[in-house]
Write a structure and sequence with these properties.
The complex is a heterodimer of chains A (500) and B (605). Chain A is an alpha+beta fold and 500 residues long. Chain A is globular. Chain A is built from nine helices and 19 strands. Helix content of chain A is 28%, strand content 24%. In chain A, the strands form four sheets. Chain A has a six-stranded antiparallel β-sheet, sandwiched between helices. In chain A, strands 13-14-19-16-17 form a five-stranded antiparallel β-sheet, covered by helices on one side. A four-stranded mixed β-sheet of chain A has the order 7-8-9-10. In chain B, a hairpin with a 2-residue loop joins strand 7 and strand 8. Chain B has a ten-stranded mixed β-sheet, sandwiched between helices. In chain B, strands 3-2-1-4-11-12 form a six-stranded mixed β-sheet, sandwiched between helices. A four-stranded parallel β-sheet of chain B has the order 6-5-9-10, with helices on both faces. Chain B has 605 residues and is α+β, with helices and mostly antiparallel strands. The chains are: A alpha+beta (500), B alpha+beta (605). At the A-B interface, helix 1, helix 5, helix 7, helix 9 and strand 13 of A face helix 3 and helix 10 of B.
Chain lengths: 500, 605
Amino acid sequence: MSRFDPIELQIVAGALRAACEEMGVVLVRSAHSSNIKERRDASTALFDRDGQMVMQAEHIPVHLGAMPAAVAAVLGAEYAPGVSWILNDPFAGGTHLPDITVVTPVFAAGETLLGFAASRAHHADVGARVPGSMPADSRTLQEEGVVISPRSLDEATLEELVARMRQPHERRADLRAQLAANRAGAQRLVELAERVGAERLREATDAVLDYSERRTRACIAALPDGELHGEDVLEAPDGDLVLRVRAEIDGERLLLDFAGSADQHEGNLNCPLAVTLSACLFAVRVLTDPDIPPTSGAYRPIEVRAPEGTVLNARPGAAVAAGNVETSSRVADLVLGAFGRAQGQGTMNNLTLGAADFSYYETLGGGQGACADADGPSAVHVAMSNTLNTPIEALEREFPLRVTEYALRRGSGGAGRHKGGDGVVRELEALTDMTCSLIGERRRHPPRGAHGGEPGARGRDLLDGRMLPAKTTGTLLAGQRLRVETPGGGGFGDARERQR
Amino acid sequence: MLLGVDVGGTFTDAVLIDDDAAVHTAKVPSTPSEESKAVLDAVRLVLARAGASPSAVERFAHGMTVATNALLEGRAARTALLATAGFTDVIELARQNRPQLYRLCAGAPAPLVPAELRFAVPERMGPDGPLLALDPTLARELILQLAVAEPQAVAVSLLHSYADPAHERLRGELLDELLPGTHLSLSSDLVGTFREYERTATTALDAALSPLLASYLRALASDARALGIPEPQIMQSSGGLTEAAQAGAHAALTVLSGPAGGVGGALALAALADEPRVLCFDMGGTSCDVCLIDGGQVPETAERTIAGRPLSLPAFDIHTVGAGGGSIAWRDDGGALRVMSVERGIDPRGFALMPFGGAGPLHAAALARGLEIGRVLCPRACGVLCALGLAAAAPRRDAARTLMLEQRSLSEHRLRDERDMLIAEARAALGVEEERVRVRHELRYRGQSFELAVEEELEAGTAVLDPDALRGAFARAHELRYGYADEDAEIELVNMRVSVWGSAPAARLRSGAATPPSTELREIVFDGDPVTATVLRGELPPGTRLRGPALCALPESTLLVPPGWCGTVDEQGTIHLHLSDGADEDADVYRLQTADDASLEAGTV
C-alpha cells in the first residue's frame, strides 16, 4: 500500500494535525463558557468517509476512543452539505450527557463525501435536576439531563435544545463555537483534497492509518508475551464494585478483557463501552509510544472486551454521569497497574456548585503515581483529564464563592525509591445558598504503590469540618465551608533505596 | 552613530549605523562565562571597521542572555515570596495540567521559590477591596522572620492585588525599611493584571533574576564609560529599550529580549521595503521562531512562557514551532505556521515571507509555496538582524491594570480617567519626551475568559475611543478572529495597557556592497531532479537580478532560489524574491555560458 515516502507521510500527517489543532483553537477561543475556554475540556478530530479517525487534537484523553464512536453513530445517514449532526446519548456515540458532539460531513466539489469533522465539548449544563448536570446520586440517564440521540442540527433544533438547558445563551454560543471549529476543519480537508486530489488524499489518509497501526504493533511486539492480571474497586455509595482485567499480549496484539467485573449498578458509575475503550487507549498510549499519531489505525491491534450489563459496558438507560470521569480513571489505573505501574490519585474530584443563575464545575488535581525513574508530580490531573484549574481571582469575580485555602497536601504522596506526588487542599466558602454535588473516588481505598512503594493518602471531603461521603449531593448554605483534600499518588520501589 | 550589540549563544554581533546610514557589522565568539568581554570585543571591532571613534556613538543598545542563561542553568538568586495566608503554594500548584499527556512523570520546572522561603501574610483582598486588613505589627514581625532566612531578593504577590495594591505597597515599604539593599519585586507594580498564578510566577522570576542582571549591567556600564561610549540601553521583550537601571531592577522585562531584537530588525527592514504585512521566521539549527508583521506592527501578548514558566508582561507575540533547519520535520511547519496565523485571526496569503537566522533563507521559498505566499524578502543582514534591530529601536515604557469593568460601568469619563492615570505613570517612567502613545484595551464578552485587544494610537487632536466605539471595534475584532460577533452580549473591559515610546532613530539604511558576487555553475538536486544552478558568492549589490535555480552564499547564510522564482536586490541590500509569471525574462539579466552550453541566468546589472 505504501506508495508514500516517509517525508510525504509526515507532511500529510502534519497537515491533518495542524487542521485538528486549528479546529481546537477556533473552538476554545470562540466558546463562551469557562469550562471550554479556561479548562479546555474539548476535543476535535477529522475522519475519512468510512468513519476512520485520521487525526485528533489531543486535549483530553477521555475523548480518545469515544470520538470514533460519535462518528460511527451518524455513519450512513442522509447527509447534505452544510448540515451538521449533534448527539450526546452515551449509548449512541456519546460518553456522558454534558459532552456534546457535533459532527459535520465534509464534501468536496461535486458533492462527494470526503470525510467528517467532529468536535466534542463538555457543556457546563445540559438540563438535569441539578445545575451543572453532574448529579452525584442519579439512578437513570433521564435524571442527568437532555438526552440527544443523533440528529441533524439546524437552527430550530439548536434553539429547541438550548431552551431545555440552563444558561441557554452560553449553550448556544458554545454550540456555535463547535460548528465554527468543524467549518475550519472541513475547509482544511477540502483544501487538502483540492491540492493533492481526493483519491490521493484518500490514499494518504489510509497510509497514515496503516503507519499508526504499524508503530503500535511494533511497540506491543516489544512487550513480553503472556498474561497479566489486575483488580481494583470503585467506591459506590452502597459498597465497593470490583473491576478486573486480564491483559493478554500475543505477538503484535493486545487483548484487554474485563470479564469478572461487577454488574452495572443503581448509581451513576456505569460506563458505555466507548468510555472503557477510551481509558484503555489512554493506558496503551502511556505504555507504548505517545508519539504515534492518534488515529483509528493505532487502535486496530488492541481489542477491548467488557461483558454487556457490567459497569464497564452498561445497558442503555443506565445512569453514567460519574462513569466518564471516575470509572474511566479507574480503568486506566487497572490497566497501568497490571503492567506494574504505581497508581495516581485515580479520581478527578468533581465539584459542581450552582443555583438558578450560575453553575460552576471544577475538577481538582492530585498526586501522580511515581515512575520507575522519577517521582510522581504533585497537584496534577493524572489520567483521563488534563484540564486547567480556575484562577481564584477569576472564580471569586464570577461566582458567589470565596476560596479560603488552596495548598499542596504535603506528605500525601506514598513513600518509595521514587515518591508519589502530593494531592491538593482546596477549601471554598459559599456566599449564598447553592446546590452542591461532589463526586470523588479513592476516599475508602488509597492509590497503590508498586514494587514495594507505599500507597498515597486517601482523599477526604469535609463540610465545616465534618466528613462527607465521597459521593454527595446537597445544599451548601451561605457561610458554610467545603474542603476537598485530594489523594496522593503511590510510591515506586522500596523507600530505603531512595537517593538523597 | 547608533550602536547595537546582541549576545547570542554562539556569537556576539555588533551593528553600527553610521551617519551616512551605512551599516557596519562585526561578529565575535560569545564568552558565556563573562558576557561583557565579547560585548566589548565586538564594539571595538565594529568601531575599527567603520573607522569611527567611540565618542561618535550617540547610543549603545544592548540585548543579552545573562538573565535567561541564569534561569536555564539554575543560577537564580535566593528568593523569598510573601503571599496571602492560605495561598503560599499557588506558585507550585500552577494550573494543575501536566505538561505531557502520556509521559506521566514529566514534571513542570520546580518553582523559583522553595517552600521554606514562602511566607504567609495574614491579609486578604477580595475583588472589591479588603476582606481582612493587614495588621502593621504582624507584618513587621513577619518581615523580621523573613530576614532570618537571608534572602537576596523578595517577591510579593497577594491575592487580588491587581484590584487594590494597598497591602502589597505597605509590605514593600516595610521591606525597604527593614531589609534595605535586598532586591524587591511587587506583583501589582510589575504585572498589575489578574490570574494569581501567572502574576506570582512572573514576580518571582523577576526577583530571582534581577540581582544578577543588575550587577552585570553595572559592570558593563562602567566598562562602557571607560571605553568612551554611552551607557547601555537594554532591549525589553516588547522590543522597546529601557535604561540599564530599570532593566536591572526588573529582569523579567528583558528576559525575552533576544528574539525581540530580531523582530525589531525585521520591522525596520519591512518598513524600508514598504511591506506592511510580513510573516517572519527565524530558523536556527534546532528551533524556528515565527511572528507576523501586520499593518507595520507585530502583535503583542502578555501570555508568553520561558523555560516552562509563564511571563505575564508585554512581549512580541513570537511563536516557537518545533523544528529547526537541522530537521526534516520543518516541512510540517507550514501547517504549524497556519495554526499560528489562524489563532491570531490572520490569513497568511498576501503576506511576504521574511526568513532570517542561519537556516531560514534555505527553506524560505518552499515554505512560501506551502503557505500560498508568492513573495520572499531576504535581508542582507539576516545573520545579524538582532543587532540591527537593537540599533534601530526606540525607548519604551509600559503600564497596565486589570479593570474588569462591566458594560454599565464603562463610561467615557471612567475610560478617560483610567487611561490618563496609566499614561501619566508610563510617561513619568519614560523620562524623555514621548513620540508615540498607544492604549490597548483587552476586552471580552461577559462570560468569556480570553481577551481580545483593541488598540488605539493616541495622536494629538484626535478623538479618543468612547464606550460605543470601543464596543464596535471589539465586535469587528471578534468577527475577524472568530467569525461571529454577538450583538446581544455585554462586553467587559478586562485590562488596559498603555505603552509610550521615545523617539526612534531615523530608519535609513544603506547596503555597503559594491563589487559583484563571484558566480559559477553547479549541478544540484532539486525536488529529486538534477538541475544546473547558478551559485553566487559574496554580498549582492543593490540592483542585482536573480533567476532560479540559484544559490546565494551570503555572508552568514545561504538563500535558495528555486526554479520559477526571480528576484532583485533593493537599496538596503534586501533580496526580494517573487514567483515568476514569465514577464521578468527581460534583457538586463545577462547569460552565463557553460561548457555544455546550458544557458542559465544570473548576474548584476
